[in-house]
Structures are given as structure tokens and as C-alpha cells.
Amino acid sequence: MKRITLASTFIPFILAMTINTLAQAAERLPTIPPSQYTEEQKKAAEEFLATRKVPVFGPFEPLMYSPQVMTQARAMGDYLRYQSALGTTLSELVILITAREWSQDYEWYVHHPIALKAGIKAEVTAAIADGRRPVGMTEDEEIVYDFSTELHKNKRVSDRTYARAEKRFGNKGIVDMTGINAYYTLLAMQMNVAQYQMPRDGKKLVRFPE
């Protein structure tokens, strides 16, 4: 499975977004200026910078209202985002599926270019954005797509889909894949609640009937 590094993809992308003006929350849970951080928030921000090598950004900004939750979420993401048993390419596929399921524009905005660079085909990401099952997926991508889609839509995974995933990725992979879906659902929920906005050059996902 192809792996991409944080240094080669994520940091440059975040720095570019900073130059282009990072998204700020709307009226709900507005981004807290660092000059107004409490001592707990300062500590959480320092740990974030030391670990991620960038200042607090994106979904972690509204989470800063509860620095303990932010720190725990960041720590979980450190593993699930960069070191999971799925590898970083397939994890990006999971993230896009989750972002689409929650119509989370910022999550898609950040991870779509990373997924393309990691090796996910543009036609696959386009189908996910449209709410269609992609054609031309690799076997691994099909397993991940079926597992993640069933989990989101049916709130469970069928025996057939589970068996394929277990055979390919093992029990650790099953737990990690479930964790990635859950983790990015958490971030999507937080940003949807906060009405967190994309940078000006972002394009919103089409909203599906509810």
C-alpha cells in the first residue's frame, strides 16, 4: 500500500492555505485568537504545534473551546491519519467518503488534493462527490469503499463485507478503518455544528436531499 509523508504533503498544503487565509468559523464557536487563549488552551496549542508542526487550524479551532477534547482528538488523529494499518492512501479514501456522507466542505477541501496526490483516481473522487459508486476502483479500494459506505449508511457492516475486509486487512485493519471513519465523523460533526467555513477558493459539495 502506498504511503505518503506528512512533511511532503500535509505541511506545504496547510502553509499554502494559511497564505490564502484559513477558513474561520461563522457565528458559532468563532476562532479564538491565540492572544485570548487561557492557560489550558495555550498548553493545548503548544502541544499541537510541537506535534503537527503547524498552528491550530481547521476542525481543531472550534475544538479549542474544550482544549482537553482538542488534545485527545489531535492525539487520536496523529495515529489514524498517518500510521494506521490501512496506509495513508486508503485512509484518504475513507476520509473523502466520510466528508461526503456529512457534506463537510472543509474536510473535502483539505483532503481531496491529498487523496489525488496519494494515488486515488480523480474519477473515483468525482463519483464519491456525486454520491455515485465509483467504477475502476482497485480491489483494496472496493473493500474500503463498501465497508465505509455500509458503516455510514446502514450503521453496521454486512458479514460479506466484513469477511473481505478481515481477510485483506486483518483485525487491526478492521479496527483502524472503523476508527478513521469515526474520527473524521467527529471532526465533520464539530465543523458542521460550528458552521466552519472554507477559504474563498473552496467549492461546496452538492447537498443531497435529507
From TrEMBL:
Superkingdom as given in the UniProt entry: Bacteria
Endpoints of the signal sequence: 1-25
SUPFAM superfamilies (alphabetical): AhpD-like
This protein's UniProt keywords: Signal
Keyword Signal in annotation: yes
PANTHER family in the record: 4-CARBOXYMUCONOLACTONE DECARBOXYLASE FAMILY PROTEIN (AFU_ORTHOLOGUE AFUA_6G11590)
Name of the protein in question: Carboxymuconolactone decarboxylase family protein
Origin species: Undibacterium hunanense
